[in-house]
Amino acid sequence: MKRLQITIIAMAVLIAGCKQSATPALQPAKYGAKIAEVGGSKQVAQVGSGLAQPVVVQVNGADGNPVVGALVAFHGEGVQFNPAQALTDASGQVTAAVQLGFNAGDYQIVAETPKSGGGSDSLTLHETALGYEQTLGQAVNAKYCIRCHDNESTPERVSNFDNLSPAPHLFTDGATLNRVSDADLTSLIAHGGAALGKSPQMPAYSSTLKPAEIKAVVAYMRTVADPPYQAPGVKYGK
Amino acid sequence: MSDEKNPVPLRSRPLLRELMIFGVVSFVLLISLAIAPSKNYFSDWRHHQNTFLKMASQRQNGTLVRSFQGGIHQTWIPKLGVVDRCETCHVNMTGALEGSYSQPYRKHPPIPHNLDEFGCTVCHRGQGVATSVEEAHYASESWEQPLLPARYLESGCGQCHLGEMEGTPRLKEGRQLLANMGCVHCHNVTQPDGNILKPTDDPPPLTRIAEKTTREWVYAWIKNPQAYAAQATMPNFGLSDQDAADVSAFLISQSNPSTTSAAKTSMPADKADASGVDKKATEAATLYGASFCSSCHAVQNAAGNLVGGTVGPELTRVGTKVNPAWLQRWLSNPPEYDPVTRMPHYRFDGKQLALLQGFLLAKKDDDFLPKAPLPAASGESIARGKKLVTEDGCAACHQINGVKAPQNFAPSLARVGSRALAQVVFAPGMKHTLPDYLAGKIRDPRSFGPGLKMPKFTLTDQQMDSLTTALLAQSDRAAGMPQEMIISAARTTDYHAGGDAGRLMEDLKCLSCHTINGNGGDMAPELTREGSSVQRAWLEEFLKNPNTLRPALIRRMPKFNLTPAETKILSDYILGAYQAPGFDSATLDQSKLNADAASRGKQLFYSKYGCQSCHIADYKNDKGYVGPALTSVGRRLTPVWTYKWLKDPATLRPGTLMPNFGLKDDEARDLTAFLMTLKAAQGGGK
């Protein structure tokens, strides 16, 4: 009998202990009406790694002014946030570090804030994770392609984009590039523009890049395409 | 035996009670016999295989289902010690069933290796032989290596690939950091092929430090190096005020007696009258820019961003640090103070020296220095400082008088990627896995307990991930890899040119930027075959006055103010020693480089190959910014080099951006003929 009592007490203590350790849910001090992005979307990082820049969102009230102390919660399949939920700071913003998941591709991040009358306002951001092949493609892009196919310059690398006519396609230009098949892109890179009746400004890379590298560049272009690329064929999923 | 005479009569039937016991025992026996088969029957993997078959039968014709073999799927690779049963559940690794699925049915993303040749655990870790989700993925008391988090996955590649590889940026950065942050000064990192990682940083010798700076600066620097230079690789040792005072006292006291600081030169800038100050400042800034100091040194701009290279130290607060007389001597001849410095010996004249000295000394930040005067350097303080310097291992990186460089100062990291967790002391509150331990140790080494010596390095989160990745590659598995699978790093050489030219190149530190015969930096073009490439007149002119070939590039060869004799020594040597094989007249019939060929070449240049999209042949029409300008290429390059270069650039200069266009012989010849007609005056037209 005594043993039973001890067991019960022990169990009670254990359960109480467990309850204590659970993190208490944050309670919003105020409610906003609208959640807006300040920065951090459309970043590219390798699978499983953190984004270079944190995601920053701002909660505004009905009057359009930032709200201090509103609750913001982040969700995203396979994505880790630090913090996953927080109250907005003095400027009405929440900053969260983001670590992408194990799989390459597009990740959706939803930032949500409860509204005063119930319900909530949410905002969806997109981030891109690169697998091995896309990472290789990114490296090849950074060495060979980016000088013409990127219109932004850095101190180390002045963009050649504006010097070319017709202008090269940005790799993020999904509206155009998504309509070109993998096979066509591959032969364009391998044999150059002139061989396919396009601009001769695009050199042939078949003697410079390995087939795997060309495939990797195509994979990279598909990953960063905006709007996102959908592979042709019937789509299954679970 | 005694009952022989009165045997118990045999009963015809058992008692009910006996029957019940027998029944219960039989039932228990049956149940217990059924445990093993039913555990097998209701196992995770059978469930996953059945689900997979159900999906496959719904979505494809029956071929996949019919050819599917149920049961444990095992990859056995004896030479790698791999026994992996992962594909028992991860049945769709090859993507036989098309579509995107969540795990365990996801197709393996494309990698350069065949999965059957390497198995899974070589890269992913985890327990390969296990057939339950729990055992395969997570650590237990009998299995210390759980599945590796995705952000460290490149460590798998690094077990065989010991050198640089495209497509694994984390591993590459991690290894560079090991060499460049000073890790390998104290830790031994021996790779599986026996190659020991060598430091690539350049900690200055402290044997003459009193000439260079003051005790106050040393005090402030060792207390917080990053407050002086944000990107300083010197770690923070967490010294107390007393410690820093003692160490600075010792470092100044051990310094060789200064030879010149007694003869303090007065600063010319001080004497300048007010009207000349502005003009002088502009002139000095121009000289700083024209000498391309910022290719190696960074300075914080008004917006607080660092602008410039990381080869040399940041100069934002250099005026607070250096002794004016030392600075003047240093600028006039750096190797005289530090023979192995990467800073070239510019031949500045007196006026230039004064300008630069004034310019640099004006970069002051007196907030950096201690507010209160330091306690005087007593003998006791110096002795305590020496003890601290010895204990903290300062001499592992810096040359210090009276303190020997310690041997095996820190634990070897050759096998750190497989360190047994039993040997590891975790910091409180951290996850008990090896990657978390390594990452934590890099993030905050002193949090693991009192009395630990490893200092705190200033790294970004990504750099910490990279370092952890590089360390995880130093695993037992890597050490036990069959030697034929190991791909060693490209070995660097210790090539140095000989003779007069060699001494001159040593003085100008050519190898700080240029690589020659496998030794040198990567800031400027490789020069191993430069002698075959350029014409003498151009080379001499260029050495005298290096104008740029690439208008868009911010880094350029600085002007060293060479004498005509020095120019001749260098040109002779470059043209004589740095020749490529097979550059004789038989390669190209130069008589065919006529006007006809040139006009055909012009066609090819502008129409077929669109060369003007990257190069400028004519400043009026062309705008290409990627490659060098070709307006005077006919005076710069030799015809044979041009011809061979057009045919296959990467063999002449590995890693060049110029694609191989697969030109036919006559096309390359015609293009060469055209290019040789481009002989505009150098630097003209722009």
What does this structure look like?
The complex is a heterodimer of chains A (238) and B (686). Chain A is an alpha+beta fold. Chain A folds into two domains: 34-130, Sandwich (Immunoglobulin-like); 132-224, Cytochrome Bc1 Complex, Chain D, domain 2. Helices cover 29% and strands 23% of the residues of chain A. Chain A is built from five helices and nine strands. Chain A has helices at 2-21, 132-149, 174-177, 182-195, 211-224; strands spanning 34-39, 44-46, 55-60, 71-75, 80-82, 85-87, 93-99, 105-114, 120-130. In chain A, the strands form two sheets. A five-stranded mixed β-sheet of chain A has the order 2-9-8-4-6. Chain A has a four-stranded antiparallel β-sheet with strand order 1-3-7-5, with no helix packed on it. In chain A, strand 8 (105-114) and strand 9 (120-130) form a beta hairpin. The model of chain A has no long low-confidence stretch (mean pLDDT 86). Chain B has 686 residues and is mainly alpha-helical. Chain B folds into five domains: 44-147, no CATH class; 158-200 and 409-485, Sandwich (Immunoglobulin-like); 209-368, Cytochrome Bc1 Complex, Chain D, domain 2, CATH 1.10.760; 499-577, Cytochrome Bc1 Complex, Chain D, domain 2 (Orthogonal Bundle); 585-676, Orthogonal Bundle (Cytochrome Bc1 Complex, Chain D, domain 2). Chain B is 41% helix and 2% strand. Chain B contains 32 helices and six strands. In chain B, the strands form three sheets. Chain B has a two-stranded antiparallel sheet with strand order 1-2. In chain B, a hairpin with a 5-residue loop joins strand 3 and strand 4 (306-308). Chain B is flat, with a radius of gyration of 35 Å. Mean pLDDT of chain B is 88; it is low at 261-272. Classes of the chains: A alpha+beta (238), B mainly alpha (686). At the A-B interface, helix 2, helix 4 and helix 5 of A face helix 22 of B.
